[in-house]
């Protein structure tokens, strides 16, 4: 596949990554982690940022050496074989499709606050269609749109930090009086107990989720060796600074024990000091954040499907040799639509499946670092700057611990079960696929052999008939000569 467009720049790739990452998990989901951990949440976000950096460093190391369109799917296949690559690719795609179909439902619910007469199914379907069509514009145009949406989200976070700073310093005075930071009653360090640490790390990792888009977009850059490492550095640095600054501002403005899981911590913090108008503003920002996340996610899974099809791990009709994977986008959009309808018809079944979305991401991150460890060990490529191997092992172990902690978090035990079931399903699907291909090839060879055999038999019969006729001709000629 030849690129006919200018490759993505460092800024475009960074903004696309930020657009994928900063979504509803941060604007809304962080309330649960803050409520459970109190001030300790700062440490969780720092640890999460460190883990993300190590995962992205592993991805960067492999991507620079081999900027394959399939990214971590390709690396897993090279490191652990076809079955592992097939499973990782399809588990990631399935998890993202289910997660994005739930995001379509979530953004529909938010929009219904302004337009209550429109059904969720209609709004969700329109959103999925729009997201799919926008992705057909191509990487360059999409990155510009994604940069604009990401800028809105970043502006919202920065604006909250500035308003909090003005309130704390007394430069912004409200009718409720000056903000007395000393009078804010902070919760205990670990109000949720030791188990809340694991639970918070799961929520924090979800808030960072989406950074793998950098690897999937590597083939869209002109110079991955320089672009990818710089984009990773800027992405991680921006996220850690923004997350920690905004969470710290929340801690100073509102006691953590009164935060609820259904309200954004930013909205709750500002509402406490009389700024009730922020609810609608943050609501708009959350809509933009979710749409931005869906755009970037569709960009990634569309290319994942194309990579799977190129390796014959997906139906042949999904292969696409153009710069834009039209077939992969359309197929993923249709799968999201089915996921949305499944959620509306069978909510309990759907919640069980959607909860595996987080598992699929964590499973993918484990395989990224594990692939790096295996490929280093096998000397698949030459590494310019070798990091200590124990860092990669610590990262893998930390991610596995986070995955195993899912049963300790309400509603996440089903995610672990669903994730294991999906892994087993795709592993079995690979076995069936290989068996089918083997039978098919055997059948084709047998047909060719039978055809050759029939051809040989026909020629032998023809030659026998010719010999018999020649004998008859000679016999008749002798009689005629007499």
TrEMBL record:
Q: What does the entry list under GO cellular component?
A: membrane
Keywords for the protein's UniProt record, in alphabetical order = Amino-acid transport, Membrane, Transmembrane, Transmembrane helix, Transport
Pfam families, alphabetized: AA_permease (PF00324)
Residues that span the membrane, as ranges: 7-28, 34-56, 90-111, 117-138, 150-174, 194-219, 231-254, 281-305, 326-344, 350-370, 390-409, 415-437
What membrane topology is annotated for this entry?
Answer: Multi-pass membrane protein
Which positions fall inside the Amino acid permease/ SLC12A domain? 13-442
Q: Where in the cell is it found?
A: Membrane
Asked whether the keyword Cell wall biogenesis/degradation is assigned, the reply is no
A biological process (GO) annotation for this entry? Answer: transmembrane transport
Query: Which InterPro entries does the record cross-reference, listed alphabetically?
Result: AA-permease/SLC12A_dom (IPR004841)
The protein, known as: Amino acid permease/ SLC12A domain-containing protein
The organism encoding this protein is Clostridium kluyveri (strain NBRC 12016)
């Amino acid at each position: 596949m030849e690129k006919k467009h200018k490759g993505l720049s460092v800024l475009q790739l960074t903004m696309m990554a930020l657009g994928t990452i900063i979504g509803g998990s941060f604007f809304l989901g962080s309330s649960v982690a803050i409520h459970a951990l109190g001030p300790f949440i700062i440490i969780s976000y720092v640890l999460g940022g460190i883990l993300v950096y190590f995962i992205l460093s592993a991805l960067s190391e492999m991507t620079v050496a081999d900027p394959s369109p399939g990214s971590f799917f390709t690396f897993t296949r090279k490191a652990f074989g076809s079955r592992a690559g097939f499973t990782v690719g399809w588990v990631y795609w399935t998890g993202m499709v289910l997660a994005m179909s739930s995001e379509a439902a979530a953004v529909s619910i938010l929009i219904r606050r302004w337009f209550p007469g429109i059904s969720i199914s209609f709004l969700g379907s329109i959103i999925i269609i729009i997201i799919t069509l926008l992705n057909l514009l191509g990487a360059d145009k999409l990155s510009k749109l994604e940069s604009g949406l990401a800028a809105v989200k970043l502006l919202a976070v920065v604006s909250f930090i500035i308003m909090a700073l003005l309130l704390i310093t007394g430069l912004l005075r409200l009718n409720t009086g000056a903000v007395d930071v000393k009078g804010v009653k902070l919760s205990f360090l670990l109000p949720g107990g030791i188990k809340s640490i694991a639970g918070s790390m799961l929520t924090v990792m979800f808030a960072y989720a989406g950074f793998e888009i950098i690897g999937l977009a590597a083939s869209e850059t002109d110079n991955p060796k320089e672009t990818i490492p710089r984009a990773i550095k800027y992405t991680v640095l921006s996220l850690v600074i923004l997350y920690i600054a905004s969470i710290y501002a929340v801690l100073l403005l509102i006691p953590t024990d009164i935060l609820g899981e259904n309200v954004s911590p930013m909205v709750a913090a500002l509402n406490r000091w009389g700024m009730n108008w922020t609810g609608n503003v943050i609501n708009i920002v959350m809509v933009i954040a979710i749409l931005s996340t869906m755009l970037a996610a569709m960009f990634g899974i569309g290319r994942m499907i194309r990579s799977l099809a190129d390796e014959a791990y997906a139906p042949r009709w999904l292969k696409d040799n153009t710069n834009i994977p039209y077939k992969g986008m359309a197929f993923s959009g249709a799968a999201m639509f089915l996921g949305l309808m499944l959620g509306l018809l069978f909510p309990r079944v759907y919640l069980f499946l959607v909860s595996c979305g987080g598992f699929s991401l964590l499973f993918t991150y484990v395989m990224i670092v594990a692939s790096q460890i295996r490929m280093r060990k096998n000397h698949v490529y030459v590494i310019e700057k070798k990091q200590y191997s124990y860092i990669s092992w610590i990262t893998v172990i930390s991610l596995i611990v986070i995955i195993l902690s899912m049963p300790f978090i309400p509603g996440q035990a089903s995610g672990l079960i669903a994730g294991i079931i999906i892994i087993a399903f795709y592993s079995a699907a690979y076995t069936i696929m290989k068996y089918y291909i083997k039978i098919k090839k055997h059948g084709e060879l047998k047909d060719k052999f039978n055809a050759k055999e029939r051809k040989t038999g026909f020629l032998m019969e023809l030659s026998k008939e010719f010999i018999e006729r020649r004998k008859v001709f000679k016999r008749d000629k002798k009689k005629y000569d007499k």
